[in-house]
Structure formats: structure tokens, C-alpha cells
Amino acid sequence: AQKITQTQPGMFVQEKEAVTLDCTYDTSDQSYGLFWYKQPSSGEMIFLIYQGSYDEQNATEGRYSLNFQKARKSANLVISASQLGDSAMYFCAMREGQAAGNKLTFGGGTRVLVKP
Amino acid sequence: ETGVTQTPRHLVMGMTNKKSLKCEQHLGHNAMYWYKQSAKKPLELMFVYNFKEQTENNSVPSRFSPECPNSSHLFLHLHTLQPEDSALYLCASSQGRTNTGELFFGEGSRLTVL
User: Fold this and answer.
1) How many contacts does A have with B, using Cβ atoms within 8 A?
2) pLDDT tens-digit profile of A70-108?
3) What DSSP character marks residue A36?
């Protein structure tokens, strides 16, 4: 079974509008971390936002916010006021436990295309 | 300019060639990783090194041979590869045991095996 599921292979969003990217995860650990990365066409994976499993508040970083619903095991990314430069692949990832090495398991990604 | 640099950015090789991918991190981290990104598949963790010691080999075929001479450098030696090994190979680093475990990635080496 997949540990990270991103059900939206691709999305169009109008410039200046908000977009929500879905992510659900599966783990039996009590302590884990959830991440979102952006991958533009250059290939580099750019860290966007982090949510710890014990964090009570949803994480926010500028125009990015993470809608963390622990009971549903979902960690959706919300991008507000979309810009043309937001066009990229977006990956949800999870770190389980506190083991050394910080291994991340990634979802299949969602391609976002921002329309002017 | 990123804190993690990968060379070469693009590599084309035949199945009988031997080549190497290089990764260097300038962030003072103590953990380094190799991930494989194939078309239409999630990123796959290949190897993890902590303080130069390999701590994870995710059932990677022996035609991929990693080397970590120090905490700043990581290599992936390639020999007798198959066409299905064509992919983007991403190197990453992290601070090891940290509060978040964020990985810092390079731009990747795109490998094509003919």
C-alpha cells in the first residue's frame, strides 16, 4: 500500500486564485513529519513547508499553508494568490518516526499549471 | 545557486560504460541521500549515508555503487546499466537528527542509458 497518496495528477489554476493540492498518508507511527516540495522544470526539489504530527496549529509559510487533518490522515497544501512561477510539480512527503537519516517517502506528485 | 551541487547535469551512456555521478553539499550537513526519479513513479530512496557510513540500501541493484568519502561528497558509480535505469538521480542532504528532517536537494543528474 502506498504511504503517500496524491490523487490529482494535474491541475489548472487561474493566476491570483488559490489552489488546494490533496495529500493523504498512511502510518502507524505516532511521531512523524509531513513535507511539501516544489519541483520546477529545472529538476531541483524545493522545500516549501513542514508539519509535525504533534503540531497543533496548521503550518504556514508565506503564500503556502498546510491543512493538517490528523484524524483523516490528510495534509493538503493550499497555495494562495497563485503566480505564474508556481507552475511546477508538487510532492507531498512523509518522515516516519525519529530515526536517524530522515528518510522521506514521496507521493506521485501533482502538476500545477497557472494560467494568466 | 543551491547548497547541493550535482554533476554532470546530463549524462548519456551505453550499457557497457562506466560512469559516475557526483554530489557535493556546502551546508555542513552530516547525512546524504540518493533518490531516483523515474517517469510516472514516485521518488525512490536508493541510499542513505550518515557521517560517511551507509545506513540504508533500499534493495538497489549492484550495478549502482555509492561512495561517500566524507560528509560533503557523495558519488554514485554506474556500470553495466540497463535502459530502464534512465531517470533523474537526485542527491540530497540533511542535518541528520533535527526537529524537522528537511532534505535539501540538488538539481539532479538526468541519465539516459542507450
Assistant:
1) 72
2) 999 999 999 999 999 999 999 999 998 765 456 889 999
3) E
